[in-house]
Amino acid sequence: MCTAGVWEDGSPVRLYPIPYRYLDQQFHKYQWITAEVAKNSADPRPESYKVDCESIECGEIVPTSKDEWGKRADIVFRKRDWQFETVDALLEAQSNVGTSLGVVTPNRITGITITNRGEEEVKSFKEKCRNCVAR
Questions:
Q1: CA–CA gap between residue 98 and residue 91 (Å, rounded)
Q2: Which residues fall within 8 angstroms of residue 11, CB to CB, at 6 or more apart?
Q3: If you placed Cys at 93, which of 24, 59, 88, 99 could pair as Cys (CB 3.0 to 4.6 Å)?
Q4: CA distances from 102 to 13, 72, 91 (A)
Q5: DSSP characters for 80-96?
Q6: Please, what is the Cα angle at 15 between 11 and 19, to 5 degrees?
């Protein structure tokens, strides 16, 4: 489906569609990729781009460093304009300019729920992915 990432300058980007399970070259989290992309005119969100999945080439994996994930943070937090103090601030940016990707640090985590997907849900998801790629 959608994959969020950053351009080299640290700006956020959403790539769609990416049927990850069906890619010839599967990339990892925090791995640079090169791909043919075009602004998605049907999607008003400023970060959204269509990607030609067959053009994806995997590049360098950005490793963690001794200070946990410092090199990764240097890339993700290079641009401060997509970092928000609160979810409300992100929602305000969405309302004003259509921003839909942002980094918000939670004050506290109150719980986590994990739910297994049933076979029918997985089958439906795979069918939707195939339809996206066929477009």
A1: 9
A2: 47, 79, 82
A3: 99
A4: 10, 16, 10
A5: GGGEESSHHHHHHHHHH
A6: 150
Report the 10 Å Cβ neighbour count for 51: 20
Considering the entire predicted model, what is its pTM? Answer: 0.69
Domain boundaries, the chain: 3-134
Beta strands in the chain (DSSP E): 3-6, 12-16, 31-34, 37-39, 48-51, 57-61, 83-84, 103-104
37-39 and 83-84: which strand pairing?
A: unpaired
The CA-atom distances, in angstroms, between 60 and each of 34, 63, 87, 133 are 10, 9, 32, 26
pLDDT digits (tens, 9 = 90+) for 46-102: 999 999 988 999 999 988 877 777 888 888 889 888 889 898 999 999 999 988 898
> Which pLDDT band, with edges at 50, 70 and 90, does 135 fall under?
very low
